[in-house]
User: Which sequence fits this backbone?
């Protein structure tokens, strides 16, 4: 078995293709069920705005063509061979570590990806798709990333796609006192609201769940609420629209802007996208989506790259440490089988001696200890010698599996 990751990301796929290859919660469950019924024993799927990646403990003969074939069949999309990547073993671990640190993100060093990795692990654990190996690898990656991000100081000033976009919009447009509408109040929507408060915008919110909107208004009484079903009737009232829902359908439609007479900025932070792409063709309307943000440079991001680059050796060392641990032969199952067999032999022997000899209680205890010690010498101690030997892991695993079968007989 081997550890691997395959999938697509913002470096290899444009946003119009990424949104077609996005895993919803139900698709994640369906995909894991398929993978675990064939060549995988554990699975975790990480699907965000910028990537959809599948982490597996899979059979040694799993190849890239199978990864490509899985994506093409599952999403019914052809010609993905140049879009899907596959990394194995230490390379896959190295990738996960860099990903958790935000080095693979559109916004280098951003913190959101670490939460998304943790959420993916929690979901997979809850559904029993990930077990001993993936749980260990992901926990180590999360813990390592937290330590390095704190130590390096890259998280001292949190930066996200919303931050980068609003900073650029503020420089061009000036957000203070502008009327802003935030559609969707999940993680990105809520983050956008905090940024808008700092900029001094006049904020309104529209959310499908009115109960959550009312809770938000309790926290920020100055925020106005807009009926989610009537967003189109109010678009013309706003200078800045930010949409960050999890809807599979378009939320902000082109026809909402038919009477537009003023300059507007529209920020789409969703995948699949919330905003009709034809909106960018409307006069005086400036549309930002996730891929457009990649083109916006920021000096602070270059500083983050430099800080994280100092930890290249730490990342390599950590990847090697995790790899050694997952490749270490697990003797626990064999030891359990051996212990059971020793108990069986001990009980049989004592039962026989009880029938043949008139042992006192003290004598019986001494005999039991002698039997246990003798059985350990010819079984358990030998296994520990195999474990500490210089034999390569593949031979150790083969011998361990053979002995386990022998002791079960």
Assistant:
């Amino acid at each position: 078995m081997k550890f691997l990751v395959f999938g697509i990301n913002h470096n290899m796929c444009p946003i119009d293709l990424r949104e077609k290859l996005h895993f919803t919660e139900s698709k994640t469950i369906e995909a894991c069920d398929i993978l675990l019924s064939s060549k995988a024993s554990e699975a975790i799927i990480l699907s965000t705005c910028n990537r959809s990646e599948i982490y597996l403990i899979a059979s040694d003969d799993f190849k890239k063509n199978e990864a490509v074939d899985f994506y093409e069949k599952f999403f019914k999309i052809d010609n993905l061979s140049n879009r899907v990547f596959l990394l194995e073993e230490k390379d896959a671990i190295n990738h996960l570590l860099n990903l958790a640190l935000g080095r693979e993100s559109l916004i280098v060093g951003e913190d959101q990806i670490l939460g998304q990795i943790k959420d993916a692990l929690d979901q997979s654990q809850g559904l029993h798709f990930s077990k001993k190996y993936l749980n260990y690898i992901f926990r180590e990656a999360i813990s390592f990333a937290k330590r390095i991000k704190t130590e390096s100081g890259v998280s001292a000033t949190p930066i996200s796609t919303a931050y980068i976009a609003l900073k650029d919009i503020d420089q061009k447009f000036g957000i203070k006192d502008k009327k802003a509408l935030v559609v969707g109040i999940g993680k990105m929507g809520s983050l956008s609201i905090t940024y808008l408060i700092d900029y001094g915008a006049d904020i309104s919110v529209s959310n499908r769940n009115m109960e959550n909107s009312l809770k938000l208004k309790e926290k920020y009484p100055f925020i106005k609420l807009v009926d989610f079903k009537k967003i189109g009737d109010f678009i013309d009232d706003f200078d800045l629209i930010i949409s960050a829902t999890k809807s599979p359908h378009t939320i902000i439609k082109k026809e909402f802007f038919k009477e537009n007479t003023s300059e507007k900025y529209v920020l789409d932070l969703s995948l699949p996208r919330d905003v009709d792409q034809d909106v960018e063709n409307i006069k005086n309307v400036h549309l930002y989506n996730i891929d457009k943000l990649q083109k916006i440079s920021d000096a602070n991001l270059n500083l983050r790259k430099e800080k994280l680059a100092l930890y290249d050796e730490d990342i390599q060392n950590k990847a090697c440490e995790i790899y050694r641990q997952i490749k270490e032969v697990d003797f626990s199952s064999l030891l359990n089988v051996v212990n059971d067999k020793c108990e069986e032999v001990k009980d049989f022997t004592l039962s026989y001696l009880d029938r043949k000899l008139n042992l006192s209680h003290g004598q019986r205890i001494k005999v039991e200890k002698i039997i246990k010690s003798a059985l350990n010498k010819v079984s358990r101690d030998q296994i520990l010698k195999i474990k500490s030997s210089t034999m390569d892991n593949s031979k150790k695993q083969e011998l361990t599996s053979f002995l386990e079968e022998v002791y079960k007989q």
In short: The two ends are 26 Å apart (CA to CA). The chain has 17 helices and ten strands.
